[in-house]
Amino acid sequence: MELDIQCEEMNPSRWAELLSTMKTCKAIRLDDCGLSSSDCKDLSSVINTNPSLTELKLNNNELGDAGIEYLCKGLLTPSCSLQKLWLQNCNLTSASCETLRSVLSAQPSLTELHVGDNRLGTDGVKVLCQGLMNPSCKLQKLQLEYCELTADIVEDLNAALQTKPTLKELSLSNNTLGDTAVKQLCRGLVEARCDLELLHLENCGITSDSCRDISAVLSNKSSLIDLSVGDNKIGDSGLALLCQGLLHPNCKIQKLWLWDCDLTNISCKDLSRVISTKETLIEISLIDNNLRDAGMEMLCQALKDPRAQLQELWVRECGLTTACCKAVSSALSVNKHLKILHMGENKLGDAGVELLREGLLHPNCNIQSLWLGNCDLTADCGTTLATIMVSKQCLTELDLSYNTLEDDGMRKICEALRNPNCKLQQLILYDIFWSAEVDDELRALEESKPELKIIS
Fold first, then answer.
1. What are the beta bridge partners of residue 176?
2. Model pTM?
3. For 370-396, what is each residue's pLDDT tens digit?
4. Do 321 and 347 form a contact (C-beta atoms < 8 A)?
């Protein structure tokens, strides 16, 4: 049994009712529920008396250090077999880290710890690293995003990595590490015995100087399948270095996030080689890079390579226009693997969607999720969109937000939704203005098609 509640303020009677339920739950998730330190006393008792509880998720609650102190009393009991603990954005400080260290040292069942968005600081996480180094600790996933860490943490992290072969996932995004620390971390990862699968270093102050060392991790850790270095100014020169590791035979990367990395169309030649030859790669995010039409055309050429296995391509806000849509359409008509395509915030226009239609309607195209928000679309492309919705039965998610479709365009969308051949499950329509009559049509459609969710 699982208890999964979000964004609900707890009054005493409701809390008492839930506590009774929690005694037999395998998972308790109470994100954004207005919980405080006093509620942690009750949760500690639940942990102590419910040996079947394996997951506790308490993100975005004002638990504070006092709350964690109460909670950990339950976590330290012999009957506790918790595996996953989520405490993101819970108003914790370094004072909580000594308590959490004792849990890491004493609870071999704990395999996931998520403590991001807390002001733990470098000194606090150094204490956590002591717990990681305990032989009893079997942690596999450690999330430390937005923890106010500095370069000084890396020596302790590396020491912990050397003793922790169980570690699979490490997220350090949104901490001011800088190139020197990231280089040091990467050298430690290359030497570490752990089979790391996920490494997230978004917004860590990385430049091209770090990329050779990150590339070495890719070359040496065939276990690494998920790398995110988004929101770092690595530029085209850094990307070229990364691609050396990505193209290495040992590299088995599956998910690669390079959003807002100061890339241009120059990088697309290297990226095309990765897409066309790295058959393990199934997801790439290039959001907010100045790729432009020339870069997108190179990527599309790679998508047409029989070896390309990419399933998700995110190219939102990449300076694209109508001019690249013929190449995208051609790729869609050849590539059978691509299922998710994010092209929002590009000036594709009605003419661009008309060009995309041929590829989208091709029998080879298996697109399931298509994002065209803020693409300068008007009511004139309503018929084209409606045709795609009705004809492409594998399409289950469509985003048309921030486009001036108006009533005429929306009526064509509604007509398509009424067609039994339309299998859309989620239609996203933020900031599109329509009349009360169209609004009534949309509401009626939601009632008549329970599988359809319209988000506006």
1. 150
2. 0.95
3. 999 999 999 999 999 999 999 999 999
4. yes
